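#dry-run=false #mode=assembly
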Amino acid sequence: MRKVAIVGTGMTKWGVRSATYKELVQEAGKDLFDDVRNLEKRDVDSLFVGSALVDRLAFQAYPAPIVAEQLGLTPTRMAMRTEMACVSGQSAIRVAYASIASGLSDVAVVVGAEKMNIPSFPEIQASMACVLDREWDGVNGLNAPPYFALVAQRHMHEYGTTEEQMAEVSVKNHDYAATNPTAHFPKRVTREKVLGSPKIAPPLKLLDCSGITDGAAAVLMTHGDAAKRYTDTPVFVEGLGQALSGSLVVNLESLTTWLPLKRAAADAFKMAGVTVHDMDLAETHDCFTISEIMEYEDLGLCPKGEGGRFAMEGQSRIGGELPTNLRGGLLGCGHPLGATGVAQAIEVTRQFKAQVPKERYVGGEWGLCHNLSGNANNHAVMVLRRGG
Amino acid sequence: MQEPDGRFAFDFYPVQSPEQTRIHPFFENLKQGRLTTTKCERCGALLWQPRVVCPKCNGDAMEWVDLPKDGTLYAFTAVMAGAPLGMEKDVPFVVAVVQLDGIPLKVVARVDGAKYEDLRMGDPVALRVIELPDGRAWFRFVPKR
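#status=ok
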């Protein structure tokens, strides 16, 4: 197996964008190709597109050829769309890794893109509800916020987690988003503002929830021998793990412990030969505030049930145990489903290359990316290391 | 997506007729006020949702069995904003994980006839069958008071 590195990054502004899916893809591509030296587009032999809801929200199936044309690419080795709902972006990186490591691909572009905002808000919500089993879960009005509200209620019941602790996660991630000009919500919020924001699905309030956001992100990946042609600081993918359980909410092993996360993290750390305590920074999937609290626990950063305390103590801020979601997370940046995982890898890469504002600069050598999808039935963990 | 005459090409509810699905007995039983599911005749596994092949032993002979019509609230919330298409007029509505009485099975369902603020974990609820405008059936629960 060959070493695989991320050697270039491209981002769009995220938000409610006056731009189509294809235009977002073009913007991310421009930022990527401007970032990379010595790249001829004909050298890109593979393309992986992470888009979750493009069929419904852009009314466009089969997006890989669309993206290839928008970017001026003609892949000759591997091209596909990866769809795993909110994990679609990391899935694209993961498949690119597998293809490059095996020698099937040499140079791959990975694009995560999502156009979420369309005129009908109920249509957006219907598309999101179809991420769950539409016939038995979605049909009952269950969607991301109410599902994670059930999780939060159980976590509060079983472990004493509080709404104040959850609010602190939102405060932290908005603090960091304020340093990120590509974020959808680059403004600080107070704990009182989070607690007083409109109820969406109690105990979750508006500022406990990530936004409905348009955006795209792209990375260039290649094998270790070629990495230095494109950048002085390649970022190596050292560990990968993914675990998937079934789909129906009532058949999950647990609402309050994410066993697939534990499995995915164990595999990724084992592959990389490190532990969570070796990480210098982490990007975790804070689709809701309760999610990040459970991620501290199930990644092994604190004992089970103490994720809320971990947040309140500032252990996930710069200077704490593990600085988490320094780009602002999903809460601060918004969540264009397929783009999120790619943008997380970009944050870690840009941290290692000291390409982020000093207010959120950590740098270091090891970074973690985590995504979950659906009703948290699928988790993916990726361990990155600064090279060069 | 809607057709020009306003009909939905799809909605959230499962197809239910014998021409469309092999688990049509679930819906026929539901219309008689019975909540049922399949039990694998080979390995005895109680399966939810109803299945035509057992995911545990690969058996494909299924027995229809009645489930309890009573349960308790294991977890619940209310959709107060952001309802999916077709459910906007129902906001706010309660959705719950209901622990069925006496068996190790939970189901997700809406809870009618109650405000979120008035409910507590563990509250007893009872089955309520609803009829959809086109004649299909679905199940919800109501608080037992």
